[in-house]
């Protein structure tokens, strides 16, 4: 038992906490320097937010480790014993054990979700009411419970009937991910948000012209009422095949100029043009296959090694408990490819309008989302799926050093931006 806990600590828990501490120190160091990109108030606020997020992350890692000890020493055996004398069929028992594990874990993680929402509210991101939060949780439980329950039942059946179950289990989960992508924009997302067709005819025709340029077929441009929960800006192209639709957050429409919006959508279409979505699906598939191979080839022996009974439910629970450590080790690779793709998408987005339009839009996004401009290189290596803003701006034609686009902190951001742009430094 101790060896597994030690491996978890050495490979995942301790490095994650070290990276968080490095990031906290790095952000604190730059927080005391002259602000760049953000005005001085927002710069401080962004630094505090970034530091607080890392502190929550450290607490989460420690909590996850305690939970691992709890499950390995008591929890799994307790669940086994709890369902031992029920009259359910063996597969139904296994299903109940895993579902109980999910329910207990979700319940124990709830304080962290509430804490995150509270932090977001303090920093002005989270706008939703407590009623909306509770409604969201209930909807998520029903949705995840129903879909997860069906998926788990199918996996248990495969494990019970197919010798190389981990290969077929992978096929089942991979197919499930594709189906979710297909139905997400039209069936799942509308459960949580309202989507209305874009009312701006001029903008819509510009977006349509942009989509024609790269041969992107979509079922329409929609505005999502994101502001009812969160003030941050975003846009996405959801779905696959015919179900694809362009979704603009209402917050984005309010805050970004039309040119900026086209440049951002151009960036997203750049991903489509460069087949990044296909590449992401292939990478996700490869990671999923690796996880199922781990589950199928190692977890059975691991159960024996840990003194747990070898059952389908214990194989699944053990894999889920150890998955964050495996993800942590493989994510730098997928993030590396993702960051490279972002530069290419930026360059396409800029070509749709101008470099200046995309730069302005990116700066506006960072301002509204209060993203701190500096991050420790180790933090970027492990967690950044997008390059840091400063690097993206440099790739978009900023030749000077970072200092050259320091902003006058006494001015509001709009004039700051205009002023800096007029000086020709951006
Ligand atoms: Zn992108």
From TrEMBL:
Cofactor needs: Zn(2+)
Q: Transmembrane segments in this chain: where?
A: 6-24, 58-76, 96-116, 137-159, 165-184, 277-298, 310-330
The annotation note on the cofactor reads:
Binds 1 zinc ion per subunit.
Q: Which UniProt keywords apply?
A: Hydrolase, Membrane, Metal-binding, Metalloprotease, Protease, Transmembrane, Transmembrane helix, Zinc
GO BP term, pick one: CAAX-box protein processing
| Residues at the catalytic site | 268, 346
Pfam families linked to this entry: Peptidase_M48, Peptidase_M48_N
- GO MF annotation terms: metal ion binding; metalloendopeptidase activity
Cite the Peptidase M48 domain residue spans from the record.
197-396
Where the record annotates domain CAAX prenyl protease 1 N-terminal, the positions are 38-194
The record ties this protein, via Gene3D superfamilies, to:
Metalloproteases ('zincins'), catalytic domain (3.30.2010.10)
Q: Which amino acids does the record list as binding Zn(2+)?
A: 267, 271, 342
Q: Which family does it belong to?
A: Belongs to the peptidase M48 family.
| The protein's name | M48 family metalloprotease
> Which species expresses this protein natively?
Helicobacter saguini
């Amino acid at each position: 038992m101790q060896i597994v806990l030690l491996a978890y600590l050495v490979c995942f828990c301790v490095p994650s906490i070290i990276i968080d501490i490095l990031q906290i120190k790095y952000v604190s160091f730059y927080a005391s320097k002259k602000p760049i990109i953000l005005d001085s108030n927002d710069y401080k606020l962004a630094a505090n937010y970034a530091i607080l997020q890392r502190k929550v992350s450290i607490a989460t890692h420690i909590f996850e480790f305690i939970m691992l000890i709890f499950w390995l020493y008591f929890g799994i055996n307790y669940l086994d014993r709890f369902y031992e004398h029920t009259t359910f069929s063996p597969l139904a028992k296994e299903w109940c054990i895993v579902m109980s594990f999910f329910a207990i874990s979700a319940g124990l993680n709830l304080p962290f979700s509430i804490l995150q929402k509270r932090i977001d509210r303090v920093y002005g991101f989270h706008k939703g009411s407590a009623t909306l939060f509770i409604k969201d949780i209930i909807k998520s439980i029903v949705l995840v419970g129903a879909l997860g329950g069906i998926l788990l039942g199918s996996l248990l059946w495969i494990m019970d009937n197919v010798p190389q179950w981990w290969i077929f289990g992978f096929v089942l989960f991979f197919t499930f991910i594709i189906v979710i992508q297909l139905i997400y924009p039209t069936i799942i997302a509308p459960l949580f948000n309202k989507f209305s067709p874009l009312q701006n005819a001029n903008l819509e025709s510009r977006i349509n012209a942009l989509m024609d340029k790269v041969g992107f077929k979509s079922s329409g441009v929609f505005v999502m009422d994101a502001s009812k929960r969160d003030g941050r800006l975003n846009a996405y192209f959801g779905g696959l095949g015919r179900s694809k639709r362009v979704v603009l957050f209402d917050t984005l429409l309010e805050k970004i100029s039309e040119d900026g919006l086209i440049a951002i959508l151009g960036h997203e279409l750049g991903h489509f043009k460069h087949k990044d979505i296909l590449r992401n699906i292939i990478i996700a598939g490869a990671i999923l296959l690796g996880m199922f191979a781990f589950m199928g080839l190692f977890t059975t022996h691991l159960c024996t090694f840990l003194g747990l009974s070898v059952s389908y439910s214990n194989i699944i629970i053990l894999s889920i408990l150890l998955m964050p450590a495996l993800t942590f080790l493989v994510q730098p690779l997928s993030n590396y490819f993702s960051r490279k793709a972002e530069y290419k998408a930026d360059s396409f987005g800029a070509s749709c309008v101008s470099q200046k339009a995309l730069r302005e839009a990116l700066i506006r996004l960072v301002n509204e989302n209060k993203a701190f401009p500096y991050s420790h290189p180790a933090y970027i290596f492990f967690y950044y799926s997008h390059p840091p803003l400063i690097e993206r701006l440099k790739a978009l034609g900023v030749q000077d050093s970072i200092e050259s686009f320091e902003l006058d902190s006494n001015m509001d951001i709009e004039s700051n931006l205009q002023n800096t742009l007029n000086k020709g430094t951006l």
